[in-house]
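Researcher: We are triaging several targets before committing to wet-lab work. For this one, the compound of interest is pyridoxal-5'-phosphate. I'm pasting the protein sequence and the ligand SMILES. What I need is the predicted three-dimensional arrangement of the protein with the ligand bound, expressed as structure tokens, so it can go straight into our comparison scripts without reformatting.
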Amino acid sequence: MRRIDQIEPFRVMQLLERAKQLEAAGRRIIHMEIGEPDFPTPAAVIAEAHRQLDRGDNFYTPSTGNPALQQALADWYAREYNVSVAPERILITPGSSGAFSLLYAVLLEAGESVLLSDPGYPCQRNFIRLAGGCPINIPVGPETRYHLSAELLERHWRDDTRAAVVINPSNPTGTLICDDALTAIAAYCRAHGGHLISDEIYHGLTYGVRARSALEFDDQAIVVNGFSKRWAMTGWRIGWVIVPEALIDACRRVMQNIFIAAPTLSQYAAIAALGATEATEAMRRAYDERRRFLLDTLPALGFDIVVEPQGAFYIYANVRRLTDDAPSFCRELLECAGVAITPGEDFGRYRAREHVRFSYATGLDDIQCGISRISAFLNSRES
Ligand SMILES: Cc1ncc(COP(=O)(O)O)c(C=O)c1O
């Protein structure tokens, strides 16, 4: 099959389009499908962007990033995780998505494989395919908190495997990986000459527990992160990747060619973001309140939450008690009750038709209204 024909659509976007059509026809839709913060970007970040526009330096930065942002991130890793990272290992990318397309371009030869969890963030497999690589989707369930483990790597690792990806906390499940599991995965990847890639974009959005960076376990781990989620900066398209020294030169050459550089304005604004802890903490507390409300109400309606999610803004629920066809269930819920949630098949194949994902990146009032509507919808199906 041609490479481009292997690229699947991001199905949640189709659901969103239908939701928008219903809204255009006058319906009020409750959005619990989209993984995008509903908060404004912190005021200090916006103020810094204004200042930067006035200063007028809006030209290319070096391809690997504005050295001031690289240094600010290195300081941040020392503060947040107590790890020492040389600033030149921190490459600034257009969103964490930019980091992934960069990484796979650098790491993969045609046909080489990368191990991923199923369910997992769907764009990953497409980044790998676009680079000519081969994603290997490994079914994961509650027994590993929906994460890969060293045992799973052992079973699926091939001679052509170059990396394993951990998303911690996970999208779609919101679960964190155990320290022991992360340590064992890092050791396995190293021993087999591959890379551990840790997607840490939901760090800072954890509840009652601190997410640990893979760099705390292995200083050669590749860590991807960005400003989209914790700092509510999706549209600023700014992220970073920390690579081992040996990869810097190859990454720089690819960056020079495919992006030239990440957006300059966003790079300056990102430095201010790192100081905006009060604003990010307020968002985190609000997400937690919503999470607790959903954890209290969903199980009684028939949505089983097998592992309590402690991070991101997602709840992955088993709907076996309600349907054997989650995609149709989601479509019906949208058409009849005006509530949009995402079917599990957006995140993989494994037991996908039994699962749905709720996003609580939407206001508590809307979430409460959504739950009332779901309850009424389920009652109407029974009668
Ligand atoms: C797990 C994960 N990684 C990466 C991304 C991409 O984020 P961005 O490119 O905005 O940094 C997302 C977005 O939803 C995500 O859920």
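Researcher: Any quick observations?
Model: The chain is about 40% helix and 15% strand.
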